[in-house]
Design goal:
Layout lengths: L7 E2 L2 E2 L6 H12 L3 H8 L4 E2 L2 E4 L11 E6 L4 E6 L12 E9 L4 H11 L4 E9 L5 E3 L7 H8 L3 E4 L2 H11 L10 E3 H7 L6 H8 L11 H8 L11 H24 L6 H15 L1 E2 L2 H25 L10 H10 L9 H9 L5 H15 L3 H8 L6 E2 L3 E2 L9 E2 L8
Helix pairs in contact: 1-2, 3-5, 7-9, 8-9, 11-14, 11-15, 13-14
């Protein structure tokens, strides 16, 4: 069995649990080819004693030509870089971006895509940075950020925290030149995959960010005041808007710093995340007419059932919604309900001690509980103008790595 190793790469010390296949996977990702292709190209003939050699010929297409040798006896890693044949400003560069927006749409109920698709949604500012550069700010009254467009066209990777929001705003709200999904990366996905919080501020706290790298604590107040209607109307405040722009810039700094402290997704996991984004962007087609019909049927059934409740209780109740009133009325009929949940109601219906009027009351309660409108209403709220619900799955939503459903919980249908 090959020994574990500790090695140094561009001045940074990596832990001992890095194994040979992980290193090869990193180099394959840098070179822009798949892990399996690189492994096949290396073959057994490239193994020389206790060393593994990856030559220039292995790394085609040559986005960045790398020659590397790992010496397993000395537990050392020797690196040599040759100059790439074609160099652009965006070559192997990362862009970090963050939008601040205004809308009357509730993003928590509608989701990023339907929010971006809403008629009232508009961009307030965009902060972005190439690599370690100071973030640049763009607002709608400025000329278009042509340098940003050029870098993206050249193939720069675009990073954002919960990047589906930035992707939605870029495409649906602004209608800017489309960015391939394969160029997007999500810093929050890295955090989730490594069991860190998905909230930017909490993740920064968990990683021990300090000083200029910390997410601004005032952002929540600024968003409440400027990014949604405040007390029924839109607020315009130049001083607070400047603060919001500074907050947007600071978010880019915090996102970038967090990303440098997290491990990138590797190998096939990158493909899994991209597939997740393709699925979420495509969305799920929903039949809006049938949803509205279902809501109408539920409403008619509810009205009819509540009318019967009013008759049964002699006007004491006009619905089964109040637990306190329901248990009190049932007690007046000579039966005691210890709780008002599904199991207790089912047991009471089977209990011969309960009177026919109590059983009818509880059957209506049971019927109304089964005809909840919440899922149908959630479907309508997250529906885009294309008749689809987008972004309904969350990559690595659970600590185990499984997906989590959002909005109307499509995994529970």
């Amino acid at each position: 069995m090959k020994p574990r190793l500790s090695y140094t790469y561009v001045g940074e010390r990596f832990p001992e649990h890095y194994m040979k296949d992980v290193i090869v996977g990193e180099i394959a990702q840098q070179a822009g080819i798949s892990y399996q292709i690189l492994k096949n190209r290396m073959g057994m003939k490239k193994t020389r004693g206790h060393a593994i050699v990856i030559t220039d010929d292995d790394l085609l297409p040559k986005k960045r030509v790398v020659t590397k040798v790992w010496n397993w006896k000395r537990k050392e890693r020797h690196c040599a870089y040759s100059k790439p044949k074609v160099v652009t400003e965006a070559h192997h560069m990362n862009i970090t971006m963050d939008f601040e927006t205004y809308s009357e749409c509730d993003i928590f109920k509608a989701g990023a895509y339907a929010y971006a698709d809403h008629d009232t949604t508009e961009v307030l500012c965009l902060a972005w940075a190439l690599g370690d550069e100071s973030p640049a700010l763009w607002t709608p009254d400025m000329p278009l950020p042509q340098r940003l467009f050029d870098l993206i066209e050249q193939g720069a990777t675009v990073w954002a925290w919960n990047s589906f929001f930035e992707m939605s705003i870029w495409n649906q709200t602004l209608g800017w030149p489309s960015i391939a999904i394969s160029q997007w990366r999500d810093s929050a996905a890295l955090a989730a995959a490594q069991a860190y919080p998905r909230a930017l501020g909490k993740c920064g706290d968990a990683l021990g960010l300090s000083g200029d790298d910390v997410k601004s604590k005032r952002g929540k107040l600024l968003i409440q005041r400027l990014c949604k209607p405040y007390r029924g109307e839109r607020r315009q405040d130049p001083d607070m808007f400047k603060e919001l722009c500074d907050y947007c810039i600071q978010d880019v700094v915090a996102e970038r710093e967090i990303r440098t402290r997290l491990r990138n997704l590797r190998g096939s996991e990158v493909d899994v995340w991209i597939t997740d984004q393709v699925i979420n962007w495509r969305g799920v087609r929903l039949d809006k007419e049938s949803i509205n019909n279902a809501l109408d049927i539920i409403e008619q059934h509810t009205i009819k059932s509540n009318k019967r409740i009013y008759e049964l209780t002699g006007g004491a109740m006009d619905s089964t919604g109040s637990r306190a009133k329901a248990t009190a009325w049932v007690a007046e009929q000579g039966y005691t309900l210890t709780a008002y949940d599904k199991a207790t109601i089912a047991a009471a219906l089977d209990d011969p001690k309960s009177s026919p009027i109590v059983r009818e009351f509880l059957k209506i309660r049971q019927s109304l509980s089964r005809t909840s409108t919440k899922k149908f209403e959630a479907m309508l709220k997250c529906l885009g103008q294309d008749g689809r619900a987008h972004g309904v799955l969350t990559y690595h939503g659970a600590a185990t790595g499984r997906w989590v459903g959002r909005h109307f919980q499509p995994q529970n249908l």
